[in-house]
Automatic annotation (TrEMBL):
Keywords: Cytoplasm, Methyltransferase, rRNA processing, S-adenosyl-L-methionine, Transferase. Its main location: cytoplasm. The gene is rsmI. It comes from Parerythrobacter lacustris. It catalyses: cytidine(1402) in 16S rRNA + S-adenosyl-L-methionine = 2'-O-methylcytidine(1402) in 16S rRNA + S-adenosyl-L-homocysteine + H(+). Residues 4-196 form the Tetrapyrrole methylase domain. Its EC number is 2.1.1.198. CDD domains: RsmI. Belongs to the methyltransferase superfamily. RsmI family. It comes from the Bacteria. One of its GO terms (molecular function) is methyltransferase activity. It is an enzyme of class 2 (transferase). This is Ribosomal RNA small subunit methyltransferase I.
């Protein structure tokens, strides 16, 4: 079937590709990808061989036009180097143009580091806000944290080993009292999930510089606690109304 297929691929463990993703990648006419070498390896692993086109959202409009033209008569699969396309990865502008051209956009879901991290973090997951990578500059990073701080949801960020301690220190000072989780190397040999107070985690990762890929999660703000003196006054008032 012609159209644009958004195909999720593994985030480390090659066993995590779905049957349907394999099927779509084997049947499609063209694979649009972030990096042709990475895509080539994955296709080889599943025994497929397809024409590859490098794509990112900064590619010239022409590259997108060519892909949209290919979608009219054939199936184009979009993949990232790892995980779900468009989630801190290219594809957004391509999806918009496919919709504008009346072309079917089809989800072929699968691994996504943000969701995998959330599920192992032990932080509340009834509400979460995915915010991609934090800015690299100190001021901008603190501004983003201050902006997201009041949101009553678990915050989910992507991060890298070299930046992690700076991110944790910024969370410790900008959002004091929050529980933090670091989900590292998910689905890979050195997978770990470490939870706790951000100051303690800074100390840990300063002693053991983290390697690999990281999802950083910040628990929601605590429910406003009623100060003890007020609580007593409230209790007395409540009991008084009960008597009448
Ligand atoms: N689109 C991808 C997805 O759906 O997961 C994410 C792409 S983004 C450019 C790459 C970031 O995802 C990494 O810096 C890291 O924060 C996170 N990531 C990817 N694979 C991971 C893994 N196996 N464990 C932890 N985090 C991972």
């Amino acid at each position: 079937e012609p159209g644009l297929y958004i195909v999720a691929t593994p985030i480390g463990n090659l066993g995590d590709i779905t049957f349907r993703a394999v099927d779509v990648l084997k049947r499609c006419d063209l694979v649009a990808c972030e990096d042709t070498r990475v895509a080539g390896k994955l296709l080889k692993h599943i025994g497929a061989s397809k024409p590859l086109r490098r794509y990112d959202d900064h590619s010239a409009g022409r590259a997108r036009e060519e892909l949209v033209a290919a979608m009219r008569n054939g199936a184009v699969a979009l993949i990232s180097d790892a995980g779900t396309p468009l989630v801190s990865d290219p594809g957004y502008r391509l999806v918009v143009e496919a919709h504008n051209a009346g072309i079917a956009v089809v989800a072929v879901p699968g691994p996504c580091a943000a969701i995998a991290g959330l599920t192992v973090s032990g932080l509340p997951n009834d509400r979460f806000l995915f915010a991609g990578f934090l800015p690299t500059k100190d001021k901008a990073r603190c501004d983003v944290l201050a902006e997201l701080g009041p949101v009553p949801a678990t915050l989910v960020f992507y991060d890298t080993g070299p930046r992690l301690t700076k991110s944790l220190a910024a969370i410790a000072t900008t959002l004091p009292g929050r529980t933090v989780a670091v989900a590292r190397e998910l689905t890979k040999i050195h997978e770990e999930c470490r939870r706790g107070d951000p100051f303690e985690l800074v100390a840990h990762y300063e002693a053991h510089p983290p390697k690999g890929e990281i999802v950083l999660l910040v628990g929601p703000p605590l429910e406003a606690k009623v100060p003890a003196a007020d609580a007593e006054a409230l209790l007395v008032a409540a009991l008084a109304t009960q008597k009448t």
